[in-house]
Specification:
- Two copies of one chain form a homodimer.
- With 271 residues, chain A is α/β, with parallel strands linked by helices.
- Chain A has helices at 16-25, 47-62, 74-79, 82-86, 96-106, 118-123, 125-133, 147-152, 161-176, 193-200, 209-223, 244-250; strands at 6-10, 31-35, 68-71, 91-94, 111-116, 138-143, 181-184, 205-207, 236-240, 262-265.
- Chains A and B meet through helix 8, helix 9 and helix 12 of A and helix 8, helix 9 and helix 12 of B.
């Protein structure tokens, strides 16, 4: 039993899709979320910058006495260094490993697609992890730089013409390579999951990073006797590095009725 | 005669459209450009964050002994405070005032449109400046949050379907209000000027912030006897806050043969 909150962070607000899944399967857990809204997006930046920003995000969460760290951000998950993770005082997970495990279980034809930010695709980290499990998998990866701005600006309707044109363009190489499993390698992408599913066909298994990381977190906390067994609904406390009004202007597309909570500003440069 | 460089900065690379215009009319001037590529875009952030970032950008340029400061960024120009500008040790200009002056000269029907980032539109700064010159002008402003990511990701072709759909959406309210002059309130937008011109019709005068600020800078330097009268072509030195490869990956759409130059990294958090 451990009542401390789970610390979740993302470059911006996409990671809230993971918070939604965490609350769905562990409603009693307390969650502290940090969204780096003054520096979002990470996915078009260099690995040096991404690593510097992630270190600050983690420092902030550690000062809030979290029992576990979740990088609910594909870009951070793919760019963080093992040496950094190994030194952390609490258990850390990104979305990469849980998503890879699920994809390797799902694939039958050993052809797995990955869509993610440019900074994630550049690392080839998803492919490398997959090949550790199924070495002869064919990996088809494509960077989707426009998805984050489209989603953050509310172009998320299933019939939105603009997002559909761009999604068709990004998914065409994936479809041509006849993958049976597609990893959504960025926590923003589940917001347009239905559209993606339609474009790649219903036969393709989509791997949602938020769902998989939530399952992983529950398993880890259970095995280590760290679940919060309180009978009360846990809180969500959101922190953002830009001001609160900007959170309120953009968060609507990610939030649902189960995960409302206080929102506070944090000056992330100080961490 | 003053051989010191002109200091130009922007949230990212859009300000290079102003550098192009500066070099066109003053090829002998030296230019130091800072693009805050590790924190771009500014236009969707709060005024507090924009002001903090601008102060750091200006500090960096001042340490490079510039003779004048040019905020080649609509968002900074609209959000910077007069008290801050008044205290600067060298003359400062944003793109706002030069663009407003040009628009007020151009309009015949006193109906002026403004397209810019959300953070610029929110300030109403363009409208306020226009009304100081022509009080009974009708101002029609619209925020265009998708233009910066579309342009930075290369969706700039005149016939690009996606950008055209979004541009039509953004420009419709402007067209309906029968403006005869439209200010491009962000230095990224000149990259898609031809498409915008087609959509609003050839009868509408477009005000390009890069052209207007370059004319203003030339006038100021001439009047104050600060032009660089060297007979050599001046240098451009680019500094970016993300790494150099990311500059090289994104700058192509903005650069032309006249403004190549060295590129260096700067850790902007230290300023």
């Amino acid at each position: 039993m451990d009542k401390r909150p789970i610390g979740v962070f993302d470059s911006g607000l996409g990671g809230i899709t993971a918070v939604r899944e965490l609350k769905k399967i562990m409603p009693n857990e307390n969650i502290i979320y940090f969204g780096d809204t003054s520096r979002v997006p990470y996915g078009t930046r260099s690995k040096q910058t991404i690593r510097k920003y992630s270190a600050q995000d983690i420092n902030f969460l550690l000062q809030n006495d979290v029992k576990m760290l979740v990088a609910a951000c594909g870009t951070v998950s793919a760019n963080i260094q093992k040496e950094v993770v190994d030194k952390l005082p609490v258990h850390f997970t990104g979305v990469l490993k849980p998503a890879v495990d699920a994809a390797c279980k799902a694939t039958k034809n050993k052809r797995i697609g990955i869509i993610a930010t440019p900074a994630t695709i550049k690392t080839r980290a998803y492919g490398k992890e997959i090949k550790k499990i199924i070495p002869d998998t064919e990996i088809i990866a494509n960077a989707c730089p426009m998805f984050v701005p489209l989603i953050e600006n509310g172009y998320v309707d299933k019939d939105c013409q603009v997002t559909r044109i761009i999604a068709n363009e990004y998914l065409q190489p994936i479809i041509e390579q006849k993958v049976d499993t597609l990893i959504l390698g960025c926590t923003h992408y589940p917001i347009i999951k239905e559209m993606i599913q339609e474009i790649v066909s219903q036969d393709t298994t989509l791997i949602d990073p938020g769902v998989e990381v939530a399952n992983y977190v529950k398993k880890y906390l259970t095995e280590n006797n760290m679940l919060n067994n309180s009978d009360k609904h846990g809180y969500c406390h959101f922190y953002v590095s830009d001001n609160i009004e900007s959170f309120e202007a953009h968060a609507g597309v990610f939030l649902d009725e189960n995960i409302s909570g206080d929102v506070d500003f944090v000056d992330i440069d100080k961490y």
